[in-house]
Amino acid sequence: MVDDNPIGVGIIGAGRIGLVHLEALSSCPDARPVIISNPTLSKAKAAAETYPGMAWTSDDTEVINHPDVDAVWICSPSQASPDSPLRASAAPPIATDLAETIKAAVNLCRAKGVKLMTALQRRFDPNFSRVKRSIAEGTIGETIVVKLCSRDPAPPPLKYVQGGGGIFKDMAIHDLELARCPRVFCLSALCFSFSQAIHDLDMARFLMASEPVATLEVWDQAPYGYDQRAEVLGTKGMMMTDNMHPSTARILSDNQSWVVTGHADMPYDFFMSRYKEAYKQETLAFVRALRRDEPAPCSGRDGLVALIMAIGAGISAEEGRWVRFEEVRSPPYLPTPPHTSPHLPVLPISPHLPTPPHTSRYLPISPVADRAVPAPAPGAAARGHRRHEGVGGGGRDGRRRRRLDQHHARIGHAVGEI
């Protein structure tokens, strides 16, 4: 049991997500930020100077070993992994490599008694929480269809793409985790080319197999703002969440050319604004769990399941087929965890659901899908170049099989070491 003194928190990472969590901590009366680290010392210093008495460093171990630190918020890039003997809250994905995640986060923390929480912010968003409550209370009856939409206003910068986990692990992971269906099919995918050597999917549509069915669309180039919506159709009605705006002001206007009716402001244009309240609530929830010595609201296992789903979605996008998450989970190394999501329910799989037609190398998502765009010339700026990435067909079965075998071998190796 933690005493009545505020919990001292160290933060690893002073990037955008680190600053979000730092701001959330400042609003929590039972916690106080103690020290923050970042490889670029000037960024850590700039963040720390906002809060009187907070220290800064470029060495993560100084955060972990600081005498006043009781818990660590891990906000480092996707490819970095936690290695803290303290309580830890980590922003998903915990790591982009599945074996690394198991070894460095879930099993290691459990073995050492570390209270690990995966900060799945959708779970603490008031809108999604309200939908979940209605499902649990039976307000809309038995669930028939779940539709999820997640659109970012702009793709991430090139540096982030080079070191991140791609659209599935860095973006879709939050939405896939809400439904937790047993298998997924990527209906279509569109690729954004930063250069001839670096491509990143910026749009994908998924069908998640179950009875009922869940669908998800993710896109990172929505010019009108941060679009986050959910719709659940039930036997007694329907419930949906709408976008959030900076104000409630609305416009009703007729200028003789067109009629304007709607919000005066665009939706929030960044996740830091859209999910500000969710970050605050997840911080309060984790601190409360620490003080009461209760289980973390979102465990490391929850984060692992989310990563498994993101990896499965990526495999489906490349191979153009249904992917069961058991393929990625690779029994017997990772037994199926109990469903603990406080949001959309696990949807039972339908053995009769057919595979959607997949007859074209390019799966169209709009008429533009049928237009071939030539690759940029060597050395040419290709920031705006878009082309379709093939997601099916071809003689790549051997390579695909080897990749899955490598996944399974690395998982077994990691578990064997622990």
Structural notes for this entry:
The protein is an alpha/beta fold and 418 residues long. The longest helix is centred in the last third of the chain and has 21 residues, at 397-417. The model is unreliable at 81-85, 194-199, 331-396 and 407-418 (pLDDT under 50). 33% of the residues lie in helices and 22% in strands. It has two domains: 7-123 and 276-302, Rossmann fold; 125-272 and 304-417, Dihydrodipicolinate Reductase, domain 2 (2-Layer Sandwich), CATH 3.30.360. Helix 4 runs antiparallel to helix 10 (300-319). Strand 13 (250-254) and strand 14 (259-263) form a beta hairpin. It is globular. The chain has helices at residues 16-26, 41-48, 60-65, 98-111, 126-137, 158-163, 166-179, 271-274, 276-292, 300-319, 325-329, 397-417, and strands at residues 7-12, 31-37, 55-57, 71-74, 87-90, 116-118, 143-151, 183-193, 199-209, 213-219, 227-234, 237-241, 250-254, 259-263, 323-324, 386-387. Strands 7, 8, 9, 10, 11, 12, 15 and 16 form an eight-stranded mixed β-sheet that branches. The protein has a six-stranded parallel β-sheet with strand order 3-2-1-4-5-6, with helices on both faces.
Task: Please report the distance between the alpha carbons of the first and last residues.
Answer: 28 Å
Biggest β-sheet, characterized?
8 strands, mixed
Question: How many β-strand runs?
Answer: 16
Helix content: 25-40%
| Tally of helical segments | 12
Indicate the proportion of strand residues: 15-25%
Give start-end ranges of low-pLDDT stretches.
81-85, 194-199, 331-396, 407-418
Superfamily (CATH H level) name of the largest domain: Dihydrodipicolinate Reductase, domain 2
> What fold name stands as the CATH topology of the largest domain?
Dihydrodipicolinate Reductase, domain 2
What's the mean pLDDT score? 73
Total count of domains: 2
Structural class: alpha/beta
H-E order:
EHEHEHEEHEHEHHEEEEEEEHHHEHEH
- What general form does the structure show? globular
Name of the CATH class of the largest domain: Alpha Beta
Please name the CATH architecture of the largest domain: 2-Layer Sandwich
Radius of gyration: 22 Å
